[in-house]
């Protein structure tokens, strides 16, 4: 994303108003999801789309457990999100651990915030997970493809993609 004012959407008129805002009750929902992801049987079911990302704070050294939706793509995991504070801890190729219903894996994180990468990778995510796309303000064309206008709007509003490469 750039520091300048948003430009006109080159892909047309978006079908949504953008990513859903963080709700006041989101912290409670995250607590419940983190708990469910620790239960072996449920984690296998829920973990097909959700995981817990264990992010270490750059300054504090504290570990934050963040429930995230992910997509498997070309041997990596993709996470589409807005530029939240925890994402800043992953910049610069940081190591991070992720739990997907089993032993945590160590991965190297790459944060993509440039227009081209975000459009390409969010298209992959939206094709794989319609619920995640909806949460991130991405609708679909009449042909069933993710709307490029919506993905562009998500990028303009701070959308990034985190790619995790397992070791």
Q: What's the short story on this structure?
A:
The chain has 167 residues and is α+β, with helices and mostly antiparallel strands. It has one domain (26-166): Pnp Oxidase, Chain A (Roll), CATH 2.30.110. The chain has 6 helices and 7 strands.
Structure overview:
The chain is of the alpha+beta class and about 170 residues long. It has a single domain, classed as Roll (Pnp Oxidase, Chain A). It is built from 6 helices and 7 strands; from the N terminus they run ααββββαββαααβ. The protein has a 7-stranded antiparallel sheet. β1 and β2 form a beta hairpin. α4 (about 115-130) packs across α6.
Low-confidence stretches: none
**Amino- and carboxy-terminal Cα gap:** 29 Å
Q: What do we call the CATH homologous superfamily?
A: Electron Transport, Fmn-binding Protein, Chain A
Strands, total number: 7
Task: Please state the overall shape, judged from the principal axes of the Cα atoms.
Answer: globular
The overall pLDDT average reads 88
CATH topology: the name is Pnp Oxidase, Chain A
- Fraction of residues in helices? 25-40%
Give the second-level CATH assignment, the architecture: Roll
